[in-house]
Amino acid sequence: MFPLTDWSDDYIFACKNNQLKRKRTLMKRIGWIVVLLFATSFWGCFGNQAQEWFETAELEEIQNSPDHAQQLYQRIIEKYPDSDYARKAADRLAAMEARKSEPSR
């Protein structure tokens, strides 16, 4: 007769080992899901830097800080030369230069 304890101990160990593997796999999947959720949530924070800089530059113009506005417009043109905001920034810079060259009344 076969000893029942040897077979049952091996079976129990195999079952527990299989359960541990499943738990590890599940934890890995959950970990990756959490990482992806964080990555996608932070991706929105860095969405459109050119737009944010452009809006800040417009605000700087309104608050009578043309030097900082000019820096922001130039940064947009350098970093995002093919964007719509680069064209708008170039137009704003041209308008600011035209205002500077106008004689004061």
Describe the structure.
The structure is a single chain. With 105 residues, the chain is mostly helical. It contains 4 helices and no strands. The protein has helices spanning 4-43, 49-62, 66-79, 84-101. Helix 2 (49-62) runs antiparallel to helix 3 and helix 3 runs antiparallel to helix 4. The model has no long low-confidence stretch (mean pLDDT 82).
Q: What's this model, at a glance?
A:
With 105 residues, the chain is mostly helical. It has helices at residues 4-43, 49-62, 66-79, 84-101.
Describe the biggest sheet?
none
Poorly predicted regions: none
Task: Supply the helix-strand structural class.
Answer: mainly alpha
Secondary structure: helix percent: over 70%
Give the N-terminus to C-terminus distance in angstroms. 114 Å
Radius of gyration equals 31 Å
List keywords for this structure.
single chain; 105 residues; mainly alpha; 4 helices
Q: Topology of this protein?
A:
Layout: H1 4-43, H2 49-62, H3 66-79, H4 84-101
